[in-house]
Amino acid sequence: MWRIIDVQIGEIRVAKGKAVLKSKAIGSCIAIAAYDTTKNIGALAHVMLPGRAPAGKKGSERTKYATDAIEAMVRQMNDLGSRSSDIEVVLVGGANVLNRKDDTICKDNIKSTLKLLREKQMKVKARAIGGTNRRSVSLDVEHGSVSYTESNGGEMQLWKARKAAE
């Protein structure tokens, strides 16, 4: 049976098998879809803020921040048997949905996320980031594919994993 798992702001969800991880209403936030092609393990993090959480933040208040979310996501995938070197990443979001010239949170989120992924030597395989339109994203864990919508448009496939056996 297929499971649909909704991922809210600050949350990270990890799954294996017949599951679809989904996140909606992605504006300036970044959705980080991660997939291990060798173990068919998927994860989705909905990041709201750049950098690391201030001391004292716990749970989803902590994983609203890019650094904490990525570290927790990798740790949770590792707990299911994934190796960091086998994880491929797709990014969705980082839009200036209010279309304000002085609004930099979207750019800061993109910059922070990309910097940390580079530092962790994680491969960004596809991205739908920037612009001014809100997005949604879904990661089909069993088939290793990421789709997204932009504004009120239809769902489009952004990326499909090349399985290790291929």
Describe this structure in words.
- This protein is of the alpha+beta class.
- It has one domain: 60s Ribosomal Protein L30, Chain: A (2-Layer Sandwich).
- Helix content is 20%, strand content 37%.
- The chain is built from three helices and ten strands; from the N terminus they run βββββααβαββββ.
- It has a five-stranded mixed β-sheet, with no helix packed on it. Strands 2-5-4-6-7 form a five-stranded mixed β-sheet, covered by helices on one side.
- The mean pLDDT is 94.
Nutshell version of this structure?
By secondary structure, the chain is α+β, with helices and mostly antiparallel strands.
Largest sheet: 5 strands, mixed
- Terminus-to-terminus distance: 26 Å
Look at the structure and give the CATH class. Answer: Alpha Beta
- What structural category do the secondary elements indicate? alpha+beta
CATH architecture: 2-Layer Sandwich
Helix content: 10-25%
Tell me, rounded to a whole number, the average pLDDT. 94
Order of helix and strand elements from N to C terminus: EEEEEHHEHEEEE
**Strand-residue fraction?**
35-45%
Tell me how many strands there are.
10
Number of domains: 1
Rounded Rg: 15 Å
Low-confidence stretches: none
CATH fold annotation: 60s Ribosomal Protein L30, Chain: A
